[in-house]
């Protein structure tokens, strides 16, 4: 980004320098053309500044619009050659300044104008000089091809400069794409490293939890049915968490081109969260009004993650408290998650309204990413409540960066 800005600054300075030099040339040309016009042409004094202006001022269009500048310069040269008589002894139908400006405009057209217009300018200018200069009696012009040959060489030189400029731009673009590809590869390598670290640190231990929970009934004798059910619930929750971790690792390990192919939870999977929380001992009740299967995938993913985080916060910050969830699918999707105050306070517990974590901010970001809103506020009775409004018809909005 810094390199791009510095390149734009250099381009702006180059344009300013070219504009300044062009203005200086225009001043010099008019200062030469106006006082010397009476030496080469028979013109009234009142008309002299206008004829000199047609000779000098088209140079001002050199950068802005060279094709228009050429048209003004060539058209005025033809009019002057036809309508303004020369002084005795002058064999050139228009001023030398006019020739210099016209040549400069032909060169600029060859460098910047569309190729088809370059051909038109080349032919028209060659005909202009061939027809007007051939009447002067000058040996160079009388050859019939001297001036057109000079113009042809000028056009070829301009096309060569154009080719060099285009090649340089292509090279710079290629270098920029190479830098972007290098940066992209660095990001992918970092993502792969993070995936490996997550696998080593999290997935391994989660796998151990699943194994311990599943084998506990066989390793420990005399377990009650409630204890067996508890171990089964722990194993089920750990397996679900492990599956989600593997999905995230797959996204991190991919090239980033098709992240939508990674399996993602849907709105229809939300009831499984309630059942899992119930198996884990959370006193939860829930109501669902409407068909969760009809919720769009993006909104469904946001709903799932918000419910997941809300239940995790409730069980972590208000252990033993009753949790009530209501989901309604109407014109938009409404979610309410409320929990009472904690029944038992354990060492290390802190209120759900604490700002020490980023769970609420993450939920608000997920809601905003699909065009919804989310509020999380303490309740007067000491509990906590999360309220979200999510659209069921997604409109084009500014996309927020949301982790999957």
From TrEMBL:
One of its GO terms (molecular function) is phosphorelay sensor kinase activity. Its EC number is 2.7.13.3. It holds the Pfam family HisKA_3. Gene3D superfamilies: 1.20.5.1930, Histidine kinase-like ATPase, C-terminal domain (3.30.565.10). It catalyses: ATP + protein L-histidine = ADP + protein N-phospho-L-histidine. The chain crosses the membrane at residues 20-37, 43-62, 67-86, 92-111, 118-135, 147-165. Residues 301-393 form the Histidine kinase/HSP90-like ATPase domain. It comes from the Bacteria. GO terms for cellular component: membrane. The keyword NADP does not apply. SUPFAM superfamilies: ATPase domain of HSP90 chaperone/DNA topoisomerase II/histidine kinase. InterPro entries: HATPase_C_sf, HATPase_dom, Sensor_HK_TwoCompSys, Sig_transdc_His_kin_sub3_dim/P. The keyword Nucleotide-binding applies. Keywords: ATP-binding, Kinase, Membrane, Nucleotide-binding, Phosphoprotein, Transferase, Transmembrane, Transmembrane helix, Two-component regulatory system. Residues 190-255 form the Signal transduction histidine kinase subgroup 3 dimerisation and phosphoacceptor domain. This is histidine kinase. It comes from Nocardia terrae.
